[in-house]
Design goal:
The chain folds into two domains: 5-74 and 166-238, 2-Layer Sandwich (Alpha-Beta Plaits); 89-161, no CATH class. The chain has seven helices and eleven strands. The protein has helices at 36-43, 61-69, 130-146, 154-161, 182-192, 205-223, 230-238, and strands at 5-6, 9-10, 24-30, 49-54, 89-91, 102-104, 111-113, 118-120, 127-128, 173-179, 201-204. A four-stranded antiparallel sheet has the order 4-10-3-11. The chain has a three-stranded antiparallel sheet with strand order 5-8-9. The chain has a two-stranded antiparallel sheet with strand order 1-2. Strand 6 and strand 7 (111-113) form a beta hairpin. Helix 2 (61-69) crosses helix 6 and helix 3 runs parallel beside helix 5. The radius of gyration is 20 Å and the shape is globular. The structure holds zinc ion. Residues 105, 107-108, 110, 128-129, 131-132 line the site of zinc ion.
C-alpha cells in the first residue's frame, strides 16, 4: 500500500490477525511508566486481555491520535449523586478470595460482582457499578458544558466538576489491547470512553483506524508540493473501514 511511511511517522495498518477488529481497543492517556502487563491488569476488570502492545514512542501516529482525542472535554473524576457530590474511587478486587463477593449498586439496585469493579463513595456502602458510573460521567460532562463560568473560574470549575488530567498529553502513552470477546471490548469502551482510570481512556478500533487515516492524509497533504489532490484524499478517507 502506498501510505506505508510518511516522513518519520510510522503509518502501518495492523493486520486483522494481529488485532481482531471487534475485540481490539485503543487505550490512551496511559502514564509514562505503563507496561503491557500493567495495561492488561488495568483492563482485566472488563474481561481477559489476550494481548497488549504499547506504541512505539512519541513520534508515532498513535500519539497524534491521542492528542486529537484528548482535545475534547473529558471526565477525569466521578462525583457521587449525593447533595455534597463527593469524588468517588474506582475499586477493583482481583484477589481470588473476593471473586464471588457481590454488592448492590445504589444507582440501579442491581446485584453485581466486585470482580467487575465498582466506584466507591465516602461511605463504604455507597457503590456504583461501572455502567452507572459511565452514565454519571455523561451527566457531569453535560453539566460542565452547560456552565457559563467567568473566564477566571474556568479552571476551577473544570477541576470541581470533571477533574483535570493527572499529566500532560505529551507524557502519556497509548496501547492496542485485544480482549477475549467482543462483549468485553464493548464494555471496556462503554465505560472508559466516558470516564478515565488514572487519566486513561479507551476507544473502539474502528474509531482509531478512522482517526489514523484522517491524520495520515493531513500529513500527506501537508508534505505534498502545492499541487494537492483533494479528490484522492477524499477517496482514501471514504474507504470503508470494514
Ligand atoms: Zn448500577
Amino acid at each position: 500500500m502506498q501510505m506505508q511511511s510518511i516522513g518519520r511517522k510510522n503509518f502501518r495498518v495492523p493486520s486483522e490477525k494481529e488485532f481482531p477488529f471487534r475485540r481490539t481497543v485503543f487505550v490512551y492517556g496511559l502514564p509514562p511508566d505503563a507496561t503491557e502487563d500493567t495495561v492488561k491488569a488495568m483492563l482485566s476488570t472488563f474481561g481477559s486481555v489476550t494481548k497488549a502492545e504499547m506504541d512505539k514512542g512519541p513520534d508515532t501516529l498513535d500519539r497524534d491520535i491521542m492528542a486529537n482525542l484528548m482535545k475534547k472535554n473529558r471526565v477525569f473524576k466521578l462525583l457521587s449523586k449525593t447533595i455534597d457530590a463527593q469524588p468517588m474511587t474506582f475499586c477493583f478486587a482481583s484477589s481470588s478470595s473476593e471473586k464471588d463477593v457481590q454488592y448492590t449498586c445504589v444507582s440501579c439496585n442491581k446485584s453485581k460482582y466486585v470482580r467487575e469493579g465498582y466506584y466507591r463513595g465516602a461511605e463504604a456502602s455507597y457503590l456504583f457499578c461501572l455502567q452507572c458510573a459511565a452514565l454519571r460521567a455523561d451527566e457531569t460532562l453535560k453539566l460542565y458544558e452547560t456552565q457559563r463560568p467567568r473566564p477566571n473560574d474556568q479552571e476551577s470549575l473544570r477541576e470541581r466538576i470533571i477533574g483535570i488530567p493527572p499529566r500532560a498529553v505529551s507524557q502519556c502513552q497509548t496501547a492496542l489491547c485485544v480482549f477475549a470477546s467482543q462483549r468485553q471490548a464493548s464494555k471496556c469502551v462503554y465505560v472508559r470512553s466516558r470516564l478515565s482510570d488514572n487519566g486513561a481512556f479507551a476507544t473502539h478500533y474502528h474509531h482509531y483506524t478512522k482517526l489514523k487515516k484522517d491524520i495520515a492524509i493531513e500529513l500527506l497533504n501537508s508534505k505534498l508540493p502545492t499541487k494537492t489532490t483533494p479528490q484522492n484524499a477524499t477517496n482514501i478517507d471514504n474507504t470503508p473501514i470494514n
